[in-house]
Design brief:
Helix content is 33%, strand content 16%. The chain has 992 residues and is α+β, with helices and mostly antiparallel strands. Residues 115-129 have a biased composition (Pro residues).
């Protein structure tokens, strides 16, 4: 008999093999953790990454389900937390660049770490590490050298190998024998399972599923289930995700007509389920850098917990049913994957009851206490493991010593105040109260220590009057609290509301713009003038237009709010009530909103962010004098809680990472898929339990489909080994978002399309040509270009011979343009579509968008971005040669009508060159048409590859918009234009 060597364990075993199995089993709890820890101490892990060597350590050999091949660890790319942890001694910060979280430059040479091979289930392989050599020079500017990243030398170690969550499902599957003959058991075959899964995922209620199964067509083709009850029974036999639980919750001082039931899952189990999911292999980061904790154990991995909670209405027009969901995600997963809704990187872990208390005058106080009580239950083990790390397998099966850190809690302003335990009209992230709102200087952060200190004083003053809710409410208001006695984050190590309450782009920026900035503009210009100006803007394919205005609508979506920001500065310019200082105030706020949305932040961009906010505060007095804040309560001041958070956004970005990943767009969408749609499938009575059951079944289906892919892969590999081939036509379900269309990829493109590239831009022309084999005279008439032949002769230097090497051309009416993103030359931006549509009955001037073109040599001034000019794209064509019957060898050309700097916008610089400079107040480039001596528009022929990027042009309106202007005629009738730098985020970074 052999006894377990762990102190405190009295278990005995018959032989050494049974003892080894006990110690290496992850479910042995403390014994397994002790065994892994002592094995690591006896053979400490090297600071170097694990190699692909077939040799394995003793720990790895003893662990069940060990992988047959070693693989290297993952490099750190997207960990959006860590800056609050005290820095390790001896590390010096020199210059900071924030990608998704802070990194810093050091003189130590960067040692690239080999990343693990991507999972076979991955949609695309992970991007290689960036280097200065990988960054091509673009026409926009010389790119800033990428920082050298120094990773923590003792963090993110592997403590052996163990089963992944899929391996565990396979090991614990009680139907392994049945699935050897039928992979899709308990269904009869793959087609039978496919029908069942489809019925579960479509959102049909059980009643309609029964009606579907009773159809004669379905009964003639019998399935293994004949009713919804049998289908549910089969779904319940599939491998299950973390299970749902139910417990009764009581709120101190609150009474309800029936017990409060809280449906939830264990937060730590859900986090481990997501952290160890193999589909995220290659897209998860495990090694921190920049700032470290002094008492951090060697080899620790920080598990970045992201929470989201929000309340939403389930019923429309009738009823008062609400949902209050809690969602969890893993911040270690790559931001690009996590931000995609189809990747299922968010999991619902709780449904906070929405109840009506008998103490109606204290409803909000009791609701806040109930919310914190439920969050305390669901995050209990997450908080415990923030103090005591646990051994958890990662997506590749490597055992990691995981410490769970609260990285971010997503919520709107109401939710953030509830989480921070502060009352209305107070800032959740700073000590600013109502009287301090709107100041030009930031208030101190509202730290956890400060809030807990006030709560302790609150509890002391309450004494034995805890059940006297009116007294408690009045006392909480006096102490600037919301009445919560035990915040859920009170015992979560490193958790601080001033940090984990991250900026919310949807409510704090976009809704702020609509509720305040746009309302101020409407007050100054009038609704009619705003609608008229925005309705005459030129249409751009892929962008929202407002042909009838927008002021008549009372509600707007977040997408509409973003679209209105694109043209806001341009449409208010020139109005007599918009003075230079008022314009600077508006421009400062718009600059702030756009800069804050950068996917990558640096110390320089954060300086720009603060400077934009200072510009608004310097000029807000001029804005107040216009009368927009003349209410009795406003009194000319800007006491807006959302505006106060603007001061703290740079600080939070520097500590937790770039802001777009923390927008509540995620929680708003999760309400639809995890609450509103399942609610329609219930009988609307006690819907919380039914919603949890529906979500459980959906996750079982998703998990089984993933397991089926793994099983099918194993079978296919065995078949390939025995027969030498596998079926290439068999479709593989995708569990990750599909890669974006990449015109720079030479291998995965439609071969029939015409694709051209230069160093920065890729162009795609459809195989279907709009006007095929047209003579130059015909093309000139179709596109209304009388100077086409003369421009062609000049381009080919045939002015004297008056003969061209061709007489027929093919013409397109649009071209797709794609660029790399401004902040990451390895990332691909969403393609643009640029139109060059000739005139027709509905559009008398056609639809011809504008582009930014490379300047020819010999220009007397430096244009936009030191060498570019704006031109209107009128035609895209390719000469057609009869010699070989093919036109593919001829270059694609474009006919453009250039615009030139407006009078007074060319300035002599200190270096002796002339530059095209933007107008001071609006900070936009102003242009006019480039005309010939006879006042006709000058046209020229350029190579299509000379175009850098599409650009948006807004006509200069003046005091009022001319009545004759429409969306189709405004840019043709206007005499002056502004280059719209707010057209999209990429354009803003290019021409800002």
């Amino acid at each position: 008999m052999q006894r377990c060597p762990r102190p405190g364990c009295d278990r005995t075993f018959n032989n050494s093999r049974a003892l080894s199995s006990h110690l290496s089993n992850r479910y042995s709890g403390d014994c397994n953790a002790w065994f892994l820890h002592t094995s690591c101490l006896q053979s400490p892990p090297s600071n170097e990454r694990l190699s692909d060597s077939p040799q394995r350590s003793t720990v790895q050999d003893d662990l069940p389900g060990a992988l047959s091949d070693g693989s290297s660890s993952l490099s750190f790319e997207s960990s959006p937390y860590l800056s609050r942890i005290p820095r390790r001694r001896g590390w010096e910060e020199r210059r900071v660049r924030f990608v998704e979280e802070p990194v810093f430059i050091d003189e130590v040479p960067h040692q690239p770490r080999q990343s693990s091979p991507p999972s076979p289930l991955s949609a695309t392989p992970p991007s290689p590490p960036l280097s200065n050599a990988d960054l091509p020079e673009t026409p926009s500017e010389q790119r800033e050298p990428l920082p050298k990243r120094v990773e923590h030398p003792t963090a993110g170690h592997c403590f052996g190998y163990g089963p992944t969550i899929l391996d565990q499902f396979l090991t614990d599957d009680r139907f392994r024998k049945e699935r050897k003959g039928n992979l899709f058991y308990p269904f009869s075959c793959e087609a039978d399972a496919e029908v069942g899964f489809w019925l579960m995922k479509t959102g049909m209620s059980l009643k309609y599923i029964d009606e579907f199964l009773r159809l004669r067509y379905v009964q003639d083709r019998p399935l293994s289930f004949t009713s919804s009850a049998q289908l549910v029974d089969r779904i319940e036999l599939l491998p299950k995700p973390p299970s749902w639980q139910c417990c009764e919750v009581t709120v101190e001082g609150g009474r309800t007509s029936k017990p409060i039931k809280f449906y939830h899952r264990d937060g730590f189990d859900c986090f481990c389920f997501m952290f160890g999911n193999p589909i995220y292999n290659g897209y998860i980061s495990l090694t921190p850098y920049k700032e470290y904790e002094d008492d951090q154990q060697n080899g620790e991995t920080l598990g970045l917990v992201m929470l989201a909670s929000d309340e939403a209405q389930l019923t429309k027009h009738y009823g008062d049913k609400y949902t209050y969901g809690i969602y969890l995600s893993c911040g270690n997963i790559s931001k690009e994957i996590r931000s995609s809704f189809s990747a299922k990187c968010w999991m619902k872990i709780g449904e906070i009851p929405v109840v009506k208390f008998e103490e109606k005058e204290c409803q909000k106080l009791l609701e806040a206490r109930l919310a914190h009580k439920c969050l305390d239950i669901v995050t209990d083990r997450l908080k415990k493991h923030s103090h005591r790390p646990a051994y958890v397998p990662d997506p590749a099966g490597r055992i990691r010593l995981l410490r769970t850190i609260l990285c971010s809690h997503l919520g709107d302003n109401v939710e953030q105040r509830r989480l921070a335990c502060v009352p209305e009209n107070s800032s959740p992230v700073s000590l600013a109260e109502y009287r301090q709102l709107g100041r030009s200087t930031a208030s101190p952060p509202r730290t956890a220590a400060h809030t807990l200190r006030r709560i302790r004083e609150f509890v002391r003053q309450i004494g034995d009057r805890g059940n006297d809710l009116p007294f408690v409410k009045a006392l909480a208001s006096r102490l600037k609290l919301n009445g919560v006695l035990e915040p859920f984050w009170r015992d979560w190590k490193f958790a601080c509301p001033s940090i984990f309450l991250t900026p919310d782009a949807l409510h704090q920026w976009h809704k702020f713009f609509m509720d305040h900035v746009m309302e101020w503009a409407r007050h100054l210009l009038s609704d009619y003038e705003v609608d008229k100006r925005i309705s005459v803007l030129q249409k751009r394919i892929g962008f929202r237009a407002f042909p009838t205005g927008f002021t008549r609508f009372t509600q707007h979506t977040g997408r509409e709010e973003r679209d209105l920001q694109r043209s806001f500065v341009g449409i208010i310019a020139g109005h007599p009530k918009i003075s230079e200082n008022v314009m600077r105030a508006f421009r400062g706020l718009l600059d702030y909103i756009y800069i804050a949305q950068y996917e990558s932040q640096s110390t320089e961009t954060l300086k720009l962010l603060r400077r934009s906010l200072r510009q608004f505060h310097r000029n807000k007095g001029y804005l107040a004098r216009t009368g927009i804040r003349d209410g009795s309560r406003q009194n000319g001041r800007f006491k807006i809680p959302k505006l106060e958070t603007f001061h703290h956004t740079p600080r939070i970005i520097a500590q937790v990472g770039s802001a777009p990943q923390f927008s509540t767009d995620h929680s708003e969408h999760l309400h639809i898929t995890n609450a509103k749609e399942p609610y329609k499938m219930t009988n609307h009575r006690d819907h919380e339990e039914q919603i949890c059951r529906i979500l459980d079944r959906r996750e079982r289906v998703f998990l089984f489909e993933l397991l089926a892919v793994v099983w099918a892969t194993v079978i296919a590999m065995a078949t390939m080994t025995s027969l030498g081939s596998i079926d290439p036509e068999r479709p593989t379900p995708s569990h990750l978002p599909s890669p974006a269309k990449n015109l720079f990829d030479q291998f995965n493109l439609n071969k029939s399309n015409v694709v051209l590239r230069n160093s920065t831009t890729a162009f795609s022309l459809t195989a279907r040509i709009a006007f095929r084999k047209k003579s130059i005279t015909q093309a000139s008439e179709i596109f209304h270009l009388p100077g086409l032949r003369a421009a062609l002769l000049k381009h080919y230097a045939k002015q004297y011979s008056n003969e061209l090497p061709f007489s027929v051309i093919d013409c397109w009416i649009k071209v797709t343009v794609q660029l790399h993103t401004q902040q990451n030359s390895n990332a691909i931006a969403v393609p643009y579509t640029v139109a060059a549509v000739p005139s027709n009955e509905s559009m008398p001037f056609g639809l011809c968008n504008f582009v930014l073109v490379k300047h020819p040599p010999g220009v007397l001034y430096r244009g936009i971005q030191s060498g570019h000019y704006i031109a209107q794209l009128r035609m895209v064509f390719r000469p057609y040669c009869y010699g070989n019957g093919k036109a593919s060898n001829n270059e694609v050309l474009a006919y453009v009508e250039p615009l030139k700097p407006a009078p007074g916008t060319i300035s002599l610089q200190t270096d002796g060159h002339y530059d095209h400079v933007p107008d001071d107040n609006i900070e936009m480039f102003r242009l006019v048409r480039d005309l010939n001596p006879d006042l006709s528009r000058r046209g020229k022929i350029i190579k299509l590859v000379d175009i850098w990027r599409p650009i948006d042009i807004i006509p200069k309106f003046g005091q009022e918009c001319p009545m004759e202007w429409t969306r189709d005629t405004a840019v043709e009738l206007a005499s002056e234009f502004y280059v719209n730098s707010f057209a999209d985020k990429e354009t803003f970074q290019s021409v800002y």
